[in-house]
Amino acid sequence: MAADGGDKFSVLLPTYNERENLPLVVWLLVRTFRQSGNNFEIIIIDDGSPDGTQEIAEQLEKIYGSDKIIVREIISILSSSGTAYIHGMKHATGNFIVIMDADLSHHPKFIPELIRKQKEGNFDIVSGTRYKGNGGVYGWDLRRKLISRGANFITQVLLRPGASDLTGSFRLYRKEVLQKLMEKCVSKGYVFQMEMIVRARQLGYTIGEVPISFVDRVYGESKLGGNEIVSFLKGLLTLFATT
Amino acid sequence: GSAWAALALAPPGLRLPAPYRQALLPLPVYLLVAFGCYSLATVGYRLATFNDCEEAAAELQEHISAAREDLRRRGLRF
């Protein structure tokens, strides 16, 4: 429990070159939390963006107050979500952590649903899924969808993880659970998100799911290339071998 | 797997009657083919039922406009 006895939600936003999207995502987060009445803070961890992301983050801090917006910069050559989360959690004062993308592919409106699901089943982790219920994606062509479903299928067969969307990164964690998992997870990229769920299951944590929509406005510019697929498969096999 | 190898490849001392062994031998291939068909069918079905979130994208556009306007009023210099 947080200091005043209520739940507090710390949203971790790792950013790299999100000068355009960051104010929009923060605005939506603030509005969502104010409407739902939950106590919150937003922690922006910028990975040395050259486009002025940090500057705009500091403007947002002035607008919304530094108890609500916390801005930190890390400069790491090998940028990975893992580093950003570890860094972000040091400053988190909430008892729950929300992780999500800062590029508007994840809409903050789902956060109250993640929270509701958590309370419903007292889950340690609630994962947003694109594959169940009315979850889904926007902006993907058939090829991209096929890769996504195919990869997920192989993952389900090999790892039997008990969660439908393993590479998704829109999740709510109890703070202690995330801290424990961060100690144990070593992979990068997509595999990192998968490893979190797999390790969580090993440690006996409970996982709930909520359908979410993923709006991809970036896919046209950055196609999923052969390299990423190969490293995904390598990571998956490693996880399979070590679980 | 080991059970199959033991029975089908039949080291001496563990011999089943010939017809049984003949039936057993191709079993792994059958299973592989069956699994292959299952995989294709499953992935195909999931691909076909993968939801497209048109409304989500449209709604996001509206939210973006509202956000930009409000932030401008609050003094954000984009």
From TrEMBL, chain A:
Keywords: Endoplasmic reticulum, Glycosyltransferase, Magnesium, Manganese, Metal-binding, Transferase. It is found in: Endoplasmic reticulum. Its cofactor is Mn(2+); Mg(2+); Ca(2+). The keyword Hydrolase does not apply. One of its GO terms (cellular component) is endoplasmic reticulum membrane. Its EC number is 2.4.1.83. Pathway: Protein modification; protein glycosylation. It comes from the Eukaryota. Component of the dolichol-phosphate mannose (DPM) synthase complex. Belongs to the glycosyltransferase 2 family. Transfers mannose from GDP-mannose to dolichol monophosphate to form dolichol phosphate mannose (Dol-P-Man) which is the mannosyl donor in pathways leading to N-glycosylation, glycosyl phosphatidylinositol membrane anchoring, and O-mannosylation of proteins; catalytic subunit of the dolichol-phosphate mannose (DPM) synthase complex. This is Dolichol-phosphate mannosyltransferase subunit 1. It comes from Alca torda.
From TrEMBL, chain B:
Pfam families: DPM3. The chain crosses the membrane at residues 25-45. It is found in: Endoplasmic reticulum membrane. InterPro entries: DPM3. It comes from the Eukaryota. One of its GO terms (cellular component) is dolichol-phosphate-mannose synthase complex. The keyword Zinc-finger does not apply. Keywords: Endoplasmic reticulum, Glycosyltransferase, Membrane, Transferase, Transmembrane, Transmembrane helix. It is a multi-pass membrane protein. Pathway: Protein modification; protein glycosylation. GO terms for biological process: GPI anchor biosynthetic process. GO terms for molecular function: glycosyltransferase activity. Stabilizer subunit of the dolichol-phosphate mannose (DPM) synthase complex; tethers catalytic subunit to the ER. Belongs to the DPM3 family. PANTHER family: DOLICHOL-PHOSPHATE MANNOSYLTRANSFERASE SUBUNIT 3. Component of the dolichol-phosphate mannose (DPM) synthase complex. This is Dolichol-phosphate mannosyltransferase subunit 3. The lineage of its organism: Eukaryota, Metazoa, Chordata, Craniata, Vertebrata.
